Amino acid sequence: xxxxxxxxxxxxxxxxxxxxxxxxxxxxxxxxxxxxxxxxxxxxxxxxxxxxxxxxxxxxxxxxxxxxxxxxxxxxxxxxxxxxxxxxxxxxxxxxxxxxxxxxxxxxxxxxxxxxxxxxxxxxxxxxxxxxxxxxxxxxxxxxxxxxxxxxxxxxxxxxxxxxxxxxxxxxxxxxxxxxxxxxxxxxxxxxxxxxxxxxxxxxxxxxxxxxxxxxxxxxxxxxxxxxxxxxxxxxxxxxxxxxxxxxxxxxxxxxxxxxxxxxxxxxxxxxxxxxxxxxxxxxxxxxxxxxxxxxxxxxxxxxxxxxxxxxxxxxxxxxxxxxxxxxxxxxxxxxxxxxxxxxxxxxxxxxxxx
Length: 355
Ligand code: 5RP
Known about the structure:
Layout: H1 3-12, E1 20-24, H2 28-31, H3 40-48, E2 53-57, H4 58-64, E3 73-76, E4 78-79, E5 92-93, H5 97-102, E6 107-112, H6 119-135, E7 140-144, H7 155-167, E8 172-175, H8 181-186, E9 192-195, H9 202-214, E10 219-222, H10 224-227, H11 232-243, H12 249-259
Parallel strand pairs: 1-2, 1-10, 2-3, 3-6, 6-7, 7-8, 8-9, 9-10
Antiparallel strand pairs: 4-5
Bound molecules: ribulose-5-phosphate (5RP).
């Protein structure tokens, strides 16, 4: 595989742990001003530094993302329909590879509508896009779109759709989580990322994330369940603590609540020092540090993954791999410092990027 292609994929799926947290904000391309995405810039700005890459359209990128902030871009290049139109599956390629290069896209994304009226058109478009993008070393993410029929799509259908996309040469496939998701992952020869789907309660979205990764997905490309959350930053950090960390659902949800400022009722020590007579003695003394003796005071509330690796000798996978710092130009991301799962790819047979 060409160096450029490998390098770009490494900016989407971290080689340190073979995981990916994409933030999807491309919904407007067929849904219009989706709730909480009316003001793109306002929604994206606080979240961009917490994701590995941003899935977005050309127009939204130009109008609403600061070019000085070099988050890797997965550029949606398909479209042509809207939610009020006749048939969502009638998509075509709407952005040229040349324009994607001008926008410094790290990867291209398009939808395929397997089993739909326009199946042929979207699948052929995928094949053509892969051929053209590969000339420039740009990976293609295929979205197995299900239009309005998402409820009816099961592992049998999604396995078929993902496999069809992979056979056309898609480098990453994005699909939906379903029962028996292992089956979908096993029969797809390239990495699978899941969409979050419609907004559901935060804990359920964290469970979806956890279950999908457990079943073999390399990550999430999540939108509504992050930015439609009551606390989007807390939510993306909680999702991250599963994707790039070791948190289970309960731990991630606890983190979400902590970051949202909601008390954690299961942890009595989180009401620090109520009985300590020395509390609040220093109200007028700004330089005093009254909490030095209070070990339980909000330790790391905002830093879920801090120092998780101290006891884990295998967690410095990049020492000999100078190119494995895919996020070097992501000012705030430092994604690998906190990632406890840094044994790259050992159990990830689906990552065939090392061709
Ligand atoms: C639509 C898309 C969206 O990016 C995708 O649905 C992810 O967003 P969400 O988590 O809100 O479902 O590709 O085709």
